[in-house]
Amino acid sequence: MNELAPLESFASGLLSRLEPAGRRQLARELAAQLRGSQSRRIGAQMAPDGSPYAPRKPRLRRKPGSLRRRAMFSKLRTTRWMKAEASPESAVVTFAAQVQHMAQVHHHGLRDRVNRRGGPEVDYPARQLLGLTDAEIAAIENAVLVHLAR
């Protein structure tokens, strides 16, 4: 979490002056803004550092070209599975409980079964799903200043 250290030092003094209701409102706005930017970045198949995700492994098929590949994580980035949560102390972007395991496996590049029961175990390459870019940190700082100016 060292990517949040500059942001924490910037905002801690300013946010301590707000009432809990004001902090909750700001956290809700930040969480929604971050959820949208994370979703767009996942849709673009990019890691927070700007590098593209590792491509899928090629599959053997009977007819080449018979299956058109969709982008990875197309459903994972929807509001049904990617949630924005807020409290007076924090703003969190997380995944719903049903898909958290799958998101963890891909985010950290772990070994997991392809299917739940009896499928082969595969080493997945790390594809960082959640993280803050420099632009998102700047947007958070700007949103905090705009909120405090009201």
Secondary structure layout plus pairing:
Elements: H1 5-15, H2 20-43, E1 82-86, E2 91-95, H3 97-108, E3 111-113, E4 121-123, H4 134-149
Antiparallel strand pairs: 1-2, 3-4
Summarize the structure.
With 150 residues, this protein is an alpha+beta fold. The protein has one domain. The protein has helices at 5-15, 20-43, 97-108, 134-149, and strands at residues 82-86, 91-95, 111-113, 121-123.
What proportion of the residues is helical, as a percent range? 40-55%
Residue ranges: pLDDT <50 for 5 or more in a row?
none
* C-alpha geometry: elongated
> Into which percentage range does the β-strand content fall?
5-15%
Number of domains: 1
Largest sheet: spatial strand order: 1-2
Structural class: alpha+beta
N-to-C span: 30 Å
**Helix-strand pattern, N to C?**
HHEEHEEH
**pLDDT averaged residue by residue:** 88
The profile of the biggest β sheet is:
2 strands, antiparallel
Radius of gyration: 19 Å
Number of strands: 4
Task: Please give the count of helices.
Answer: 4
Question: Your description of this structure?
Answer:
The model has no long low-confidence stretch (mean pLDDT 88). The protein has one domain. Helix 1 packs parallel to helix 4. The longest helix is centred in the first third of the chain and has 24 residues, at 20-43. It has four helices and four strands, in the order ααββαββα. Helices cover 42% and strands 11% of the residues. The protein is α+β, with helices and mostly antiparallel strands.
Which descriptors apply to this entry?
150 residues; two-stranded antiparallel sheet; 4 helices; two-stranded antiparallel ribbon; alpha+beta
